[in-house]
Write a structure and sequence with these properties.
Elements lengths: L1 E6 L4 E10 L2 E11 L6 H19 L3 E5 L7 H20 L3 E5 L1 H8 L7 H12 L7 H20 L1
Length: 158
C-alpha cells in the first residue's frame, strides 16, 4: 500500500510517500514545497492545491494521512494552516485519495513513543524506521511520520 503523508503549511508544505510491503516500510519520495510570499494569500493556497494535485497524479497514492487541526496559540497562524490544509484535502478528494486524519499527539506517539516529542526527535525516528540514508527536511519528516502513523493504525484496524 502506498500512503501519502502531508504536513500542511501556508509557507512550506511537507509531503512523503511511504510504501508498506509485508512488515517493511520504505520511503518512496519525500520533500517540501514553498509558496511565493510575494503573492496574495489566496494564490498561495491555490499553489498548494496545484502542487498536491501534481504529487497525487505522479505517484497515485491510495490513501493520505494528514495532521488534524489542533489548538494553536496564534489564531492567524492557525487560520492560515487551516486554509492550507483545506487545499490539500480538496486535492485528495478530487484525486479520489482516501483521507485519514491524526492528531499531532497520535503521530508523535506512533513514531517516537512520546506524544510531546520534538520535530528533531520525529525526524530521527522517521529516518530509522524507514532506513533512510540521509535526514529529510523537518517538514518532510513530519509528513513521513503521518504516513507511518497511518500504516501503524491500519495494522490494528485490519
Amino acid at each position: 500500500m502506498l500512503v501519502l503523508g502531508v504536513d500542511p503549511g501556508s509557507r512550506v508544505t511537507g509531503y512523503g510517500l511511504v510504501e508498506k510491503k509485508g512488515q517493511q516500510m520504505t520511503c518512496i519520495h519525500a520533500g517540501t514545497f514553498g509558496t511565493s510570499l510575494n503573492r496574495p494569500f489566496f494564490e498561495r493556497i491555490y499553489e498548494i492545491f496545484q502542487s498536491m494535485t501534481e504529487i497525487m497524479n505522479r505517484f497515485q497514492p491510495e490513501e493520505m494521512a494528514i495532521e488534524d487541526l489542533f489548538f494553536h496559540k496564534n489564531l492567524e497562524s492557525a487560520l492560515k494552516i487551516g486554509h492550507a490544509r483545506g487545499a490539500v484535502l480538496i486535492a485528495a478528494v478530487q484525486n479520489r485519495v482516501r483521507i485519514f486524519e491524526y492528531s499531532p499527539l497520535e503521530i508523535k506517539k506512533s513514531v517516537v513513543g512520546y506524544g510531546r516529542a520534538t520535530k528533531e526527535q520525529v525526524r530521527s525516528m522517521t529516518q530509522v524506521i524507514l532506513k533512510m540514508k540521509t535526514l529529510p527536511p523537518l517538514d518532510a519528516s513530519d509528513a513521513l511520520a503521518a504516513a507511518i502513523c497511518h500504516l501503524n493504525w491500519m495494522r490494528w484496524r485490519g
